[in-house]
Design brief:
Length: about 220
């Protein structure tokens, strides 16, 4: 009986001994690894969500601007030669804004619409303004923001011809629109051509909407 009592006391002491320092350290290490994996997953999910939202915002403003330009350019009777200065008497510099104009007459008035792409390091804009007949041009309205500076090989505006030699004038618009910042930054590239179905190729492109560009 004495031996059995001693055995029970010995087993009781072992049960009360708790866990060792090694076991505590192993548990803490496993918990830290789990928390690191969990935090990395949450951060990646947050980054992906922000990037998706940035792309959606850029796509939305581009789609809105394209829909508006398509309606306007479609009824243009003439499109000007894209450039930076009146009648393109000077070449564009690296910091000069790019312009193109088109005139519509389907409303009974001569309405000149001017498009402008600014060139700034922090992100340019595509804006438009209109002038009816001999009136003063209205204020600029921003259509797209966050535009990357154009390079000589990829001008924002290009005048072309649709189909055969005697086809319609076309306006090609090429833009790179940036959105977001840091790890969530993304760029949406747009390349689309609008056809002016009321135009003729032989239109005097250097006489369209004169007086709206810098001299």
């Amino acid at each position: 009986m004495i031996g059995a009592a001693r055995t029970r006391r010995h087993e009781h002491r072992r049960r009360d001994a708790g866990v060792s320092l090694i076991e505590v350290l192993v548990g803490m290490t496993l918990m830290a690894m789990f928390m690191a994996m969990f935090t990395t997953g949450i951060l990646q999910l947050y980054k992906t969500t922000n990037q998706t939202e940035s792309i959606a915002d850029a796509q939305s403003q581009v789609n809105t601007a394209i829909a508006r330009l398509d309606t306007q350019v479609r009824y243009a009777s003439a499109i000007s030669s894209p450039g930076c200065f009146e009648k393109n008497l000077r070449a564009c510099g690296t910091s000069d804004a790019r312009y193109v104009e088109f005139v519509t007459k389907n409303t009974g008035d001569d309405v000149c619409t001017q498009l402008r792409v600014t060139v700034v390091a922090t992100g340019g804009t595509l804006s438009s303004r209109t002038k009816k007949n001999a009136e003063v041009a209205g204020p600029w309205r921003e259509l797209i923001s966050g535009i990357s500076a154009p390079v000589p090989a990829v001008p924002p505006f290009t005048l072309g011809v649709s189909g055969a030699t005697d086809g319609f004038q076309t306006l090609r618009v090429q833009l790179a629109v940036a959105s977001g910042a840091g790890d969530t930054a993304s760029t949406k590239r747009t390349d689309i051509a609008f056809t002016a179905v009321n135009s003729i190729v032989k239109a005097d492109r250097d006489a369209v909407c004169l007086g709206m560009r810098p001299a």
